[in-house]
Amino acid sequence: MKSPLAPGVRFLTSFSRDSWYRGSILLLTFLFYTSYHLSRKPISIVKSQLHRNCSELIPPAGLNISDNETWCDWVPFDQSNYKTLFGILDNCFLVAYAIGMFFSGIFGERLPLRYYLSFGMLMSGLFTCLFGLGYYWEIHSLLFYAFIQVMNGLMQTTGWPAVVACVGNWFGKGKRGFIMGVWNSHTSVGNILGSLIAGVYVSSAWGMSFIVPGLIIAATGVICFFFLVESSDQKHSETEPLLQNLRSNEGMINGSVTTESAEVIEEHAEAISFVGALCIPGVVEFSLCLLFAKLVSYTFLYWLPLYISNVVHFDAKDAGDLSTLFDVGGIVGGILAGLVSDYTGGRATTCCVMLLFAAPMVSCMLLLCGGLVNGPYALITTAVSADLGTHESLRGNSRALSTVTAIIDGTGSIGAALGPLFAGLISPSGWNNVFYMLISADILACLFLSRLVFKEVQGWCRSCVPQSRGFPDLTSFLNICC
Asked: Which of 154, 108, 40, 153 is CA-nearest to residue 385?
């Protein structure tokens, strides 16, 4: 008597081939963008090692420190203007990232995503490693580190438009908020892993805090080249060529159908222009909202470990470990924002409510603040971008995802550049003033969504209030008041 099929095998075979493709795309793109964020994080951890309070440390034997109070610091960050220099490094990366992002989406629509992502990850790995090699080569030139940050910022722009386009190509709108909310946890997972990996080496040899993440992202670039399937169309075109040829032959028999199909394909094959993407309803509002939401998120990303080190007096490793609580909250917040927006259908309202609650919590409760700040950030950069990139006004043209995603994230990256810059300028006057800036940014992010929130609430009220033919004015009044 034969035994029944093993439960594990039965479970695996219950999934269709298409489901396996979808699962692999989610897993691979999650891995790819985790490595992007993992390689960005070390600079925030290493800052507190580049400039330390040398009076609390024991100098090496034979070192005369009577005329050298900054003997333990890394030149050129050994002077009193070290916060300004850190701000310069941050902005070299972030400004290059913001500018490059607007062009990255255009390239992403026109180049094979597999090649584009692989190239970007390999080059990001190279420049991340070069920053760390400055420790072993004993390079003390600010220009060297600034140049590396600029080039790394440009290379990192290859990631986001491409991975969002890949996921958007494989998944429809039904549960996009939840799926992308879970998937977008790669941002926080990358930050956490980057902090932990950098923390292992920061006190002994901070160069390895960059070299190890650099090697990791380069390795994922190789994986991308060998395994990424960009879209379901590519899967069908490469795995079912006979079916493609059969359909082509049938089209040759029916000339009118072939002509019409060719026109549709030709029309949809043309990538959308930059101005055309800006005209999609909601793109401008969500872009400006993300500018201020990302300002808050990236200020925490780049300055939270240094703040903890200065105020709570933790060492570099402990400060980096504690700062991961903000990112842990971000994972929960991204998933929660996706679930709520899927259930209610109100992407803008979900973002606005979470940002309003985040405003009074930016100076305390890292876990909760991380969820409320990164939840809207995650929702806008994933589900909202994918929704707008496949908006009904595009009439089925799927070649707008990368451009729309690049516009939204590029605008947000301007805020990401301004936040750490303002933090560096304001922090000498007191950390409380930095938190006032962050609260103001949260409120402004909400204001830019006010028109979309009003439209969503109006739509909900129309579905709840019965229409009255005899009293149109009363119905309109109720709709507006709701």
From this structure: 108
Q: How far apart are CA 238 and CA 37, in angstroms?
A: 32
Look-up of token digits 């099929």:
5
Q: Is the dihedral of CA 452, 454, 460, 465 positive or negative?
A: negative
Question: CA-CA distances (angstroms) from residue 285 to 19, 176, 194, 298, 412?
Answer: 34, 20, 32, 20, 11
DSSP per residue over 388-420, as a string?
HHT-GGGTT--TTHHHHHHHHHHHHHHHHHHHH
- The Cβ of residue 51 has, within 10 Å, a number of other Cβ atoms equal to 21
Domains: count for the chain: 1
Look over the chain and give the mean of its residue pLDDT values, rounded to a whole number.
81
pLDDT digits (tens, 9 = 90+) for 79-136: 888 888 888 898 899 899 989 988 887 887 788 889 999 999 999 999 999 999 999 9
Q: How far apart are CA 190 and CA 92, in angstroms?
A: 21
DSSP structural state of residue 56: G
Q: Give a yes or no: residue 132 inside a domain.
A: yes
The reply to whether 10 falls in a domain is: no
H helix runs in 137-207, sequence order: 142-156, 159-170, 176-183, 186-201
**CA atoms of 158 and 145, how far apart (whole Å):** 21
For the residues of 419-448, what is the DSSP string, one character each?
HHHHHHHHGGG-HHHHHHHHHHHHHHHHHH
Q: How many helices (H) and strands (E) does the chain have?
A: 23, 0
Range of the domain at 289: 20-52+77-231+271-461
The reported pLDDT for the residue numbered 126 is 97
Kindly report the CATH number assigned to the domain that includes residue 281: 1.20.1250.20
Q: What is the distance, to the nearest Å, from the Cα of residue 371 to the centroid of all Cα atoms in its chain?
A: 15
**Total Cβ atoms within 10 A of residue 377:** 28
Q: Measured between alpha carbons, how far is residue 428 from residues 125, 310, 431, 444 in Å?
A: 34, 12, 8, 24
Task: Give the three-state DSSP class for 130.
Answer: helix
User: Residue 38's closest CA among 206, 268, 196, 246?
Assistant: 196
Angle (CA) 286 288 292, round 5°: 110
Write down the pTM of the prediction: 0.75
Do the beta carbons of residue 38 and residue 194 sit within 8 Å? Answer: yes
First to last CA, the chain: 68
Alpha helices (H) in 54-185, listed in sequence order: 82-110, 113-136, 142-156, 159-170, 176-183
